[in-house]
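Batch 3, record 17
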Amino acid sequence: MKPPPFTYCDPESVDEAVALKSEYGNDSLVLAGGQSLLPMLNMRLARPEALIDINKIGDLQKIERRADILEVGAGVRQYELEDHPLVGELVPLLPEATGYIGHIENRHRGTVGGSLAHADSAAELPCTAVALDATVVVHGPSGTRTIAAQDFFQGWMTTALEPEEVLVAIRYPVTPWTAGHGFVEVSRRVGDLALAGAAAVVNLDEDGRFTSVSVGVLGISVATVRASAVESALIGEAPTEENIARAAKEIVPSVTSGDDLHATRAYRRHLASVVVSRAITAAVARAHERSNGK
Amino acid sequence: MTTSTAAKYGTARRTVTMHVNGWGVTREVSTRTTLADFLRDELDLVSVHLGCEHGECGCCNVLFDGHSVRSCLMLAVQGDGHAVETVESLSVDPTELHPIQESFAEEQGLQCGFCTPAMVLRTKEIIETGHEMTDAEVRHEISGILCRCTGYQNIVNAVQSAGAKLRGDGGPPARADSRVGEAAADRGEATADGAAGGRS
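Prediction for the assembled complex:
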């Protein structure tokens, strides 16, 4: 299996990458970590006229704090997200979820921006982006624009990126110190794409009731789902096992994946409420730890 | 379609220079050649085994700037200016084994051998972190490489044995009755140990 012929472009600046995207448009693909694109090229599922390799663009490799925002460049490797002390301190959901992406060999090459732009509905980074209310930063011929993560993921491997645009960074709001987070996914084998998974961030008031809940769910639909019905069912409630289990069932109508090789629809509907409930429970436990620890 | 900016990238072949197993090599390659094919076909490093060629099996893993990667999921042109290590780098003399390779032989950590170069390289990478690991942690760390023969247990034993040797301690934590020293003296005995399923 060999990739089909393409024009290989390795620009050293974002502007040059955008110029190439503007010239080739939909006939070009951006190569970041290549952990999804190279298999597609090797199997000739993708046949771009031009391949725009962004690995030489140093501006895309940064991890920076700006006030209450953690900005991660599109070219940052996934293993760096797992290991970087700033990420663990400011947005602790990220390293936890990133550890579930493929295997370490994939995370050594795979990038943050690549996973977001590929937009697999079972992928961890789109799910955490939605759960964390992150903002995607893209650069095009007329400059930079930002897109809320929830609007960025539009459907099956489909994003709000225009053909002449390049994803350059993602901005995560810094998670409050007292918040708790949880990430749970179920897959057949370690490193496989998840059958279903959930990311949760919760805040509790002084009486221990939910003041905020945000939950993203992967693997159950054409794109990551924000579990709004689950969230609103919990606001103001106490984080009891019964309350969480009852609210988690609100995810079931959002399960649109049909039967496939890996799971039946009925099983995914069951699994969706299980992972949601477990992720929220883990987040509550962390919130308790943090409020007791301070 | 090809205009101003794109024009400079018109060429289908590029000259690349990379450090492979400590040697500087310069070759002209087709831009669509994978790193795996480059290492095998241009440099004759046939320890890079091609199983699936789409990133599932892990048998083509190499160390790229010290990190294990799937060489079938990279292009040779992306290696320009970088360092690549394959299992051929472990022993200069082909008749002598590196301690990790010795451990794989002693512990019967291989059968058909197809995944072995990748497993040995991954072992090197794991050991270099300096942390002792439980068997479960080792299993997790090698989970990116498929072995269809061994059932993994003897590979885990080999990783633990190699770790103990290279750290210079008596034996891995999970095995108080370490027989690493004896096994090193007699490969046949180690094989008998493995066949008896003496490791838990």
